[in-house]
Amino acid sequence: MRNIRTKLVFGEEVFDKLQNAKILLLGVGGVGSYCLDCLYRSGVRDITIVDFDRYDASNQNRQMHSENHEGELKVEALKTHYPEVIAMAEKITPEWVEEFDFEPFDLILDAIDDMRAKLALIQKCYPKLISSVGSAKRLDPTKIEIRSIWKTEGDPFASKIRNELRKRKFNGDFSCICSSELPLIKEKGSFVGVTGAFGLAMCSLALRRIK
Question: How many domains does the chain have?
Fold first, then answer.
């Protein structure tokens, strides 16, 4: 049976909750695609994915299934591998966040890297939000942590988010997937051993929240 080993870990009652949970995953790149795979393999079936981008050759070092779908919309390509997901090929902007109805979802998983859209998400959805911050430019997955956005260390991107939230007088809180490893380079390099592990950590926290 497909999910028997997952059920052994979570138990029947919790596994039923996983199957009935309604998850919104924003961004299905280096972090989000691994999170999606983990959610799906763990028995979650009601998953909506949102991303406007298409695969190109530069994605192949870090994004799940990218090598087989160059030029295709990511969400449509992923739907061929995870047929039960709801795919939305839309650009996530502050305006999109303002208009979108997040109410039906149990959890919102943020795997985007656009600062303005991220801030809009935080302000609107933080009680249901799990956010990924800086996963690129790093090599050590053992430095990945789950922390309050107010308590990350070694992550310049998270620091910028905090500064912007203070300017907006935001005083809420939410969990983020972060790394205490300082960025190793200035360029936009990435290593799947870290970006993929960020996605798996996000999935793990989401499943434990549903539990």
Answer: 1
Q: How confident is the model at residue 6 (pLDDT cuts 50, 70, 90)?
A: confident
Spatial CB neighbours of 109, under 8 Å, sequence gap ≥ 6: 23, 24, 25, 26, 32, 35, 130, 202, 206
Instruction: Give tens-digit pLDDT for 48-96.
Output: 999 999 999 888 889 889 998 999 999 999 999 999 999 999 999 999 9
**73 Rama sector, left if φ>0, alpha if ψ -120 to 50, beta otherwise:** beta
Residue 195 belongs to domain spanning: 4-210
Are 198 and 131 a contacting pair, CB within 8 Å? Answer: no
C-alpha span between 47 and 119 (Å, rounded): 23
Q: Residue 184 sits in a domain of what CATH number?
A: 3.40.50.720
